[in-house]
């Protein structure tokens, strides 16, 4: 067994981020403040949105998006089961019911046909995911959702820097939710963002993240006169700190380099694994380009070993791979939740695994991953 273990992911963090965080601490303003505002503006510009609302996680961003749509008990929201469980959980947070739809085998994403198959008169919204950074076909989804008079929310947790039709994921989105977890390209440790083009929604979302308050702490501090805030509705404590935002600004400046390197590594994986029998690799869809937040492979029925056995063999070879994307409907939290058959979702979650991919990955490390895979494939 190799002692030089190859991790599945390493955030690209360094002295710049450390200095930015230190500067924020030494400024005396560490809560939500001017650095958060600057990060919101820069992030929104990057994804082609009018407004950014920084929050404590992508999960809270998803929750607030559904609050903004005034969803509640008796409503249904179509979601993919093939996603981190937070996607479905956010629907339950507002008292609505997630309705699981199947996904496309090649991309892992919702399609108009899959949504239509489970849509009912109680459907009040669609929550689509750009899975693992692979962009969903939002042009098609937006078109059918407009025909059905349904709002489309985009879970873009993994998709910063991915594109659809030559434009950034998030461009033109009604509401898009983003993650800055360490496994994402841009990280602030924890944290999230909501983007929208609607100024009224943005103003309300900023209130909702701060207890429903009509004047933020930063606004009160900046005023030369006493500001007596009001609490206009029941809100939440979903704020981001200026320390996190300072790190995020540095990370955002590295994004182009991250995407270039990850796409280079993904293309090299593709070339090295192309002739491995029984293996299908993730690729760009026809409608866009992935940031390759995750690089996953799908095992065919004739692959010599099963997914879990392969994960074990890779671990013995010093390679830290991960199981593929989870399926929420197979978890105990949703064991009794009614659903239609989801054959593609269950195929992907059963037979896929995520390979190591990170900015500082060397070709020698990638060669070791490929060699370990080939050995299990029979050469």
UniProtKB/TrEMBL annotation:
It comes from the Bacteria. InterPro entries: DegT/StrS_aminotransferase, PyrdxlP-dep_Trfase, PyrdxlP-dep_Trfase_major, PyrdxlP-dep_Trfase_small. GO terms for molecular function: pyridoxal phosphate binding; transaminase activity. It holds the Pfam family DegT_DnrJ_EryC1. The active site is at residue 184. Transmembrane segments: none annotated. Belongs to the DegT/DnrJ/EryC1 family. L-glutamine:2-deoxy-scyllo-inosose/scyllo-inosose aminotransferase subfamily. This is DegT/DnrJ/EryC1/StrS family aminotransferase.
């Amino acid at each position: 067994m190799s002692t030089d273990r190859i991790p599945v992911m390493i955030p690209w963090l360094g002295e710049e981020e450390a200095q930015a965080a230190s500067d924020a601490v030494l400024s005396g303003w560490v809560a939500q403040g001017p650095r958060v505002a600057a990060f919101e503006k820069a992030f929104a510009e990057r994804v082609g949105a009018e407004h950014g609302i920084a929050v404590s996680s992508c999960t809270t961003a998803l929750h607030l998006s559904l609050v903004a749509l005034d969803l509640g008990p008796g409503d249904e929201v179509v979601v993919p089961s093939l996603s981190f469980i937070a996607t479905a959980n956010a629907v339950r947070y507002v008292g609505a019911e997630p309705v699981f739809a199947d996904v496309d085998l090649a991309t892992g994403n919702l399609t108009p046909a899959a949504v239509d198959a489970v849509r009912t008169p109680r459907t009040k919204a669609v929550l689509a995911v750009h899975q693992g950074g692979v962009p969903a076909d939002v042009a098609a989804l937006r078109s059918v959702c407009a025909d059905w008079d349904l709002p489309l929310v985009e879970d873009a947790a993994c998709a910063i820097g991915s594109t659809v039709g030559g434009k950034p994921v998030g461009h033109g989105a009604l509401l898009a939710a983003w993650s800055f977890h360490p496994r994402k390209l841009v990280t602030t440790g924890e944290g999230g963002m909501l983007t929208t083009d609607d100024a009224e929604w943005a103003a309300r979302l900023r209130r909702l993240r701060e207890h429903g308050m009509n004047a933020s702490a930063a606004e009160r501090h900046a005023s030369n006169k006493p500001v007596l805030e009001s609490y206009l509705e029941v809100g939440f404590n979903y704020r981001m700190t200026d320390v996190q935002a300072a790190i995020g600004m540095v990370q955002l400046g590295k994004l182009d380099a991250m995407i270039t390197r990850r796409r280079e590594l993904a293309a090299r994986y593709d070339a090295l694994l192309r002739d491995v029998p029984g293996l299908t690799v993730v690729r760009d869809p026809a409608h866009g380009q992935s940031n390759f937040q995750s690089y996953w492979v799908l095992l065919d029925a004739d692959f010599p070993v099963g997914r879990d056995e392969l994960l074990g063999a890779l671990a013995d070879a010093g390679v830290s791979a991960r199981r593929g994307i989870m399926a929420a409907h197979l978890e105990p939290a949703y064991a009794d939740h009614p659903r239609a058959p989801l054959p593609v979702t269950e195929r992907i979650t059963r037979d896929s695994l995520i390979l190591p991919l990170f900015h500082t990955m060397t070709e020698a490390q990638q060669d070791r991953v490929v060699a370990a895979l080939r050995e299990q494939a029979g050469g």
